[in-house]
Amino acid sequence: MKRYWLILVFYFVSNVVCPQTNPEDKLGTWFMYNGKHQLSEKFSINSGVQFRYYEPSTNYNLNLFYTGFNYHIGSQTFATFNYGYLDIDRSIEFSDVKNTIEHRFWEQIYRKHKLYGIALNHRLRLEHRFLHDHENTLQNRIRYRLGSSIPINSRFSFLVSNEFFVNLEGDPFRENRIYGALDIQIDKHVKINLGYLRQHINNLNLNRLQVGMHITTDLRKK
Q1: Cβ-count burial of 177 within 10 angstroms (0-12 exposed, 13-18 middle, 19+ buried)?
Q2: Using CA atoms, how far apart are residues 34 and 9, in angstroms rounded to an integer?
Q3: What does R_g of the chain's alpha carbons equal in angstroms?
């Protein structure tokens, strides 16, 4: 029963922070890959790619490529430093800016634990965004994501999360994301996520399907 209350809380937060008005007509897609490779007890490296579209397979939105390393504070907590490169189509948002190149650096802390038998995870991130279009700007923001994984059986689980963004320059509250997905464990190294994202960004409410692949490996000597 407590798990159902958790889902209701996420739903309530999403509707308060990103009200269901002015939705975009098109159903877009995000295709994602994420890899995490353990090098030692304390260090691992990560990498990822995202391709986002305003429509199922056309009308390009952005490409994101990133990599970095993790420092494992304990079995349930790790800190991350990453760099990402983004190529962004901005024509749907602004008439005078068609394309933006972004170099993004971020630091984050990730922790998971159980509360009353519910598996929770927290991700707190500080981002530094170097944006290049008709002028060069630096924007900083804080992101916090609260999520949960609800097991269905040994292979399937349901993921739910809500993430809000706080910009440190300009309008502080321009984006929020509510997410739900089916997590499928293919084998001990590979997982697939099939999900739905409701994204509120710059006064737009976007509906996005997400397809993600996650690969984890252990490169430590046995």
Answers
A1: buried
A2: 28
A3: 18
Q: What is the pLDDT of residues 158-195, one digit of tens each?
A: 999 999 999 999 889 989 999 999 999 999 999 999 99
In sign, the C-alpha dihedral spanning 126, 48, 9, 77 is: negative
Residue 2: DSSP 8-state: H
Q: Rounded to whole angstroms, how far apart are CA atoms 184 and 190?
A: 9
Tell me how far apart the alpha carbons of residues 218 and 44 are, in angstroms, rounded to a whole number. Answer: 9
Cα separation, 202 vs 94, whole angstroms = 10
| pLDDT 10s digits, 79-95 | 999 999 999 987 766 65
Residue 216 forms beta bridges with which residues? 36
Name the helix (H) or strand (E) containing 11: helix 2-17
Indicate the Cα dihedral angle 46, 215, 79, 52, nearest 10°.
70
- Beta-sheet pairing, 175-185 with 190-201: antiparallel
Which distant-in-sequence residues (6+ apart) come within 8 Å of 25 by Cβ?
A: none
Burial 94-119 (b: 16+ CB within 10 A, else e): eeeeeebebebebebebebeeeeeeb
DSSP per position, 63-85 = EEEEEEEEEEEETTEEEEEEEEE
Q: What does DSSP say about strands 156-167 and 43-53: parallel, antiparallel, or unpaired?
A: unpaired
